[in-house]
Design goal:
The structure holds two protein chains of two kinds. By secondary structure, chain A is mainly α. Helix content of chain A is 70%, strand content 3%. Chain B is globular. The chains are: A mainly alpha, B mainly alpha. At the A-B interface, helix 1, helix 2, helix 3, helix 4 and helix 5 of A face helix 1, helix 2, strand 1, helix 4 and helix 7 of B.
């Protein structure tokens, strides 16, 4: 992904997270817990399971729709990060050649089934993670993690990283562009120039950090980044987590699509 | 390479999350004792720096392909192991959240693979002894190369182990290893060179930055090994016990190798109440026990070593397909309807 493309994608996700919808107003802890439960439930399915995974799509779909997150944006990002999973899973058909019939008259090697299962699990977990950020905002997640028990030092550090990420990305972009303009093509892209570029960036970073520290000291910084937002758990948060957890448990242990299918066929006579 | 959720099992993911959270807590505690507040913005900004510099590519001489910085080693040299680990953990967390790089369950594994090995293994055991007082550029280069290579080899090995233990990808352990290790050897060498270059640059420009860490005590000093071991053991038991009953019935790589070694099918079963109850619950609820559809109740279920794929009852599979299709239609229909409704009622 090119520098500019990655940077603008980051900005968009960040902007989406500051909207105000029903989902955005939920407590960050509730959303983090629900998303982790989702990931565990999805990943706990056996290798060849596909059908029972399908109802799980309801979670990202609902969150995305209620949170007003553009579906195409999420879908494109899922596709963009899929290479590793595809690369590893693609070899499943090669190594697992037991033949299985998935429908009357249609049979494939079991490796394709497990590959498809990996892809479905991937789409589910990645979209849930993206939607978590898109509906919660990074500082919100950090606050939630702090209240869930992560050390204050680590959370402060996360917040600083986030705060200065955009600043540093812009600075890096300037440096990269300068390098490009002086390179006449590939000549400047070697390791020696890179080392100098990164070294310069690092020194500027350290100096910037010292200025930041001085400025924060002058404003009363004492080690932890305080937040004015009073976040208490409300009934809606508890209901959300309970409903989500209940739904995941139901779909994990009851074969929903098969049951629905049988009902339909039963009704159809 | 970052691990992905889809390739993990809950047990492996949970175990590594437990380990990572423990390590974060440990590093935070160690840092708090010796840290002055000045370091906090520095760590945050350095995290952003690593992030940004990972986006700058450089061409690898001789191959024409491009690479980018990992950063664990540079951070360890510049900040010391505990701070470096926290910074790497935060960079990976941001990557997982904003770039969906891997997923949330795999984040524990990724922080472990890309943070623990460079900061707590390669830096103290390889870089520090080799680099000495850090004044000779040649020694720094050697130290960077060695620690870069080892750190990345361990990380790659870790990924292979996690994938194989999870049993989701069919790639055999050996084949995966043969693919991952050589690639990461090359990456490690490049990273070693680049690390040495940056350290050299910083030493030339502002040597006092580097001198701060040369005198720091090695990680692990001052923490009772017994407490640490008990803590990790407890976390591992909780993670393994609570999550492994969700694990697949099929023998995974670990059981397979245990079976080969001991000649038995798996670990010897302990006759305790709770595992038995959980096992019967699992038998009742497992939809695809042994990856075949449930045989009729009156048929004695044979004890099989390799799960077989019986001829699938055509009726069951049609129901499944119908139901699956319907579920998808309803699910995305709900999503579409909500958006349409929201669109109409929005000002």
């Amino acid at each position: 992904m090119s520098f500019e493309a990655a940077y603008s994608g980051l900005g968009r996700l960040d902007r989406l997270s500051y909207r105000d919808t029903m989902i955005h107003r939920l407590d960050p802890r509730a959303k983090v817990v629900a998303t982790m439960l989702f990931a565990v439930a999805v990943v706990s399915f056996p290798r060849y399971e596909i059908l029972s995974l399908l109802p799980f799509f309801l979670f990202p779909v609902l969150i995305g729709a209620a949170g007003d997150i553009p579906a195409g944006f999420i879908a494109r990002k899922v596709v963009a990060v899929s290479p590793f999973a595809i690369f590893v899973g693609m070899l499943n058909p090669l190594f697992d050649s037991a033949v299985v019939a998935i429908a009357p008259g249609v049979s494939v090697s079991a490796g394709w089934v497990s590959f498809a299962s990996i892809l479905v699990k991937f789409a589910l977990t990645i979209s849930a993670a993206l939607l978590l950020v898109a509906t919660t905002s990074f500082p919100g997640i950090c606050r939630g993690l702090r209240r869930l028990g992560l050390p204050a030092l680590f959370v402060s550090q996360l917040l600083f990283l986030y705060r200065y990420l955009f600043v540093l990305l812009e600075e890096a972009m300037r440096v990269v562009r300068a390098r490009e303009m002086r390179s006449f093509g590939k000549r400047g892209a070697g390791a020696r120039v890179f080392v100098r570029v990164v070294g310069t960036l690092f020194l500027r970073t350290v100096e910037r950090a010292e200025r930041i520290y001085g400025a924060m000291l002058a404003r009363g910084f004492r080690g932890e980044v305080p937040s004015m937002r009073q976040e208490t758990l409300r009934t809606s948060d508890v209901v959300f987590v309970a409903a989500a957890g209940g739904f995941f448990a139901l779909c994990r242990f009851v074969p929903v699509p098969q049951t629905i299918g049988r009902l339909i066929r039963g009704l159809a006579g | 390479m970052h691990m992905a959720d889809a390739l993990l099992s809950p047990a492996v993911g949970g175990a590594f999350w437990a380990g990572t959270v423990g390590a974060i807590g440990y590093a935070s505690k160690k840092l708090k004792e010796r840290l002055d507040d000045r370091r906090i913005p520095l760590m945050g900004v350095l995290g952003a720096f690593i992030f940004a510099s990972q986006m700058i590519n450089f061409t690898i001489p001789g191959t024409g392909s491009s690479g980018h910085l990992g950063g664990g080693m540079i951070l360890a040299v510049l900040l010391g192991p505990h701070a470096a680990f926290l910074v790497m953990a935060s960079v990976l967390a941001v990557q997982a959240l904003f770039f969906a790089d891997g997923g949330l369950l795999a984040l524990g594994c990724n922080i472990w693979n890309l943070g623990i090995y460079p900061c707590f293994v390669a830096w103290p055991l390889i870089y520090r002894p080799l680099a000495g007082d850090g004044r000779s550029p040649r020694r720094i280069l050697v130290a960077s190369l060695a620690s870069g290579v080892v750190g990345l080899q361990l990380g790659a090995l870790s990924v292979v182990l996690q994938t194989s233990l999870s049993g989701v990808a069919a790639l055999p352990f050996g084949a995966f290893l043969l693919i991952m290790q050589p690639i990461h050897l090359a990456i490690g060498i490049v990273e070693g060179f680049v690390t040495a270059g940056v350290i050299h640059y910083v030493r030339a420009a502002r040597p006092e930055i580097l001198d701060g860490t040369a005198s720091s005590p090695p990680p692990g000093a001052g923490v009772s090994l017994r407490n640490l071991s008990i803590g990790f053991l407890a976390l591992a038991i909780v993670a393994g016990g609570a999550l492994s009953w969700l694990a697949s019935v099929r023998p995974d790589g670990l059981e397979w190798s245990i079976g080969k070694v001991t000649g038995k099918g798996g670990l010897p079963e302990r006759e305790h109440e709770v595992p038995l109850a959980l096992k019967s619950l699992q038998k009742r609820t497992a939809f695809l026990p042994g990856y075949g559809f449930k045989p009729p109740a009156n048929e004695a279920k044979p004890k099989e070593e390799a799960p077989s794929w019986p001829n699938i009852d055509a009726g069951a599979s049609i129901s499944g397909l119908i139901g699956g299709f319907l579920v998808l239609v309803v699910t995305f229909g709900i999503g579409w309807a909500i958006r349409a409704f929201r669109g109409r009622s929005a000002p």
